[in-house]
Design goal:
Elements (H helix, E strand, L loop, with lengths): L1 E6 L2 H15 L5 E5 L10 H12 L5 E5 L4 H10 L3 H5 L1 E3 L4 H21 L16 H6 L9 E7 L2 H14 L3 E7 L7 E7 L1 H17 L3 E7 L5 H6 L1
Helix pairs in contact: 1-5, 2-3, 7-8
Length: 235
């Protein structure tokens, strides 16, 4: 997948293009089309068509991101210059230009890594807005003063466990205790969390649904009244 960034401002889209290349890496095709041929604010169908051809020469498909609605008119004209086969390879995103470009860059980078890994890839994901507690839980730095109800999710893959932990944290008022990934677990991973019984049950169910949807759920457990000593043993 390659990316085409279209803006009324050449300076804006060129700077954004640099950011996207840094995020996506050199293996992802990125082209920009900003401003008119004479350097004014606006869009140019020939410049967009040139950018599209450039990306399609280097990638199987292309995603186009636009800054303003009027840029879509120039894009329509640009696509008319392409063959029907090439037009089928072009997808137009409705996401905001800057945020969508960064997200698309991450997605394209993951796809490039997936192609490189081929049959050795077990799982993958892209989460646009990761919950703030995930990285501290992975680092084991989330502070838990008292253990309430205890929830545990276990997965066959690191990637699905992170997705499940994110879904759990977003679905209910729980505190993630720890996300433990793979080490000495034979590739498996688990997350522990605490909160009220209802909140933990809701969070565990939400996380299990995400992991189970991939067929990678090992087990899920909710303990309503765990022994207090468990907290010190887990951390």
């Amino acid at each position: 997948m390659g990316l085409i960034l279209v803006s009324h401002s050449g300076k804006l889209v060129d700077g954004l293009g640099e950011m996207v290349v840094q995020v996506a890496g050199p293996d992802v095709a990125v082209a920009t089309a900003g401003g008119t041929e004479d350097g004014r604010l606006g869009t140019s169908a020939p410049r967009i068509a040139e950018a599209v051809r450039d990306v399609l020469d280097r990638a199987d498909t292309a995603v186009v991101l636009l800054d303003l609605g009027s840029a879509a008119l120039s894009l329509e004209l640009a696509l008319e210059d392409l063959s029907e086969e090439d037009r089928r390879r072009v997808h137009i995103s409705e996401a905001p230009l800057v945020e969508g470009a960064i997200l698309a860059a991450v997605q394209a980078s993951v796809e490039a890594g997936t192609r490189a890994g081929a049959f050795s890839i077990i799982d993958k994901f892209v989460i646009p807005n990761l919950h703030d507690s995930i990285f501290p839980a992975i680092a084991g730095s989330n502070k838990v003063e008292a253990l309430q109800a205890l929830g545990v999710l276990e997965s066959f893959s690191v990637a699905s466990l992170i997705e499940g932990a994110d879904a759990a944290a977003k679905s209910a008022d729980v505190t993630l205790i720890e996300v433990r990934l793979a080490m000495a677990l034979g590739g498996k991973a688990f997350v522990t969390m605490t909160g009220s019984v209802a909140a933990v049950q809701s969070a565990v169910d939400a996380g299990a649904e995400v992991i189970g949807g991939k067929g990678l759920l090992v087990n899920k457990v909710v303990i309503a009244s765990p022994r207090r000593e468990l907290l010190s043993e887990m951390i």
